């Protein structure tokens, strides 16, 4: 039996665990894994900044690729 639950770890890093009755008594392994798939909800301002930064990065990468293609095409002439 495996039960997975996502919880927020408080600043003091203390949590209390109430074990469900379905879990048999005895030795149990508790694993703490960062929930990377759980993302903080962005405010509208943060969302605009995120999009803007990634758009600029994508534009730079695209320009680098086009520049490389042009150099390659010019060297073939």
TrEMBL record:
Source domain of life: Bacteria
Protein name stated in the entry: Uncharacterized protein
